[in-house]
Amino acid sequence: MVLTPPLHTPRMLLLPLQLEDAPAMQSLFNHWEVVRYLTHHMP
Q1: Per-residue pLDDT for 31 more than 90?
Q2: What string of DSSP letters covers 2-29?
Q3: Phi and psi of 14, rounded to 5°?
Q4: Nearest CA-CA partner of 22 in 38, 1, 3, 43
Q5: DSSP-assigned letter for residue 41
Q6: pTM higher than 0.85, yes or no?
Q7: Could you tell me which SUPFAM superfamilies the record lists for this protein (predicted)?
Q8: Within 10 Å of residue 2's Cβ, how many Cβ atoms?
Q9: pLDDT category, 40, cuts 50, 70, 90?
Q10: Residue 13 has pLDDT above 70, yes or no
Q11: Rg of the Cα atoms in the chain
Q12: How far apart are CA 2 and CA 23, in angstroms?
């Protein structure tokens, strides 16, 4: 399992996805403007 380190900038904190993020991510799948940029390999 590869652990992605957090990315910190002065204006942003980007954390690895977690199971709790799944509902929010799945809600984006209804928007073609988002989905068309995703890879074809979905977790």
Answers
A1: no
A2: PPPPPEEETTEEE----GGGHHHHHHHT
A3: -110, 120
A4: 43
A5: -
A6: no
A7: Acyl-CoA N-acyltransferases (Nat) (SSF55729)
A8: 4
A9: low
A10: yes
A11: 13
A12: 22
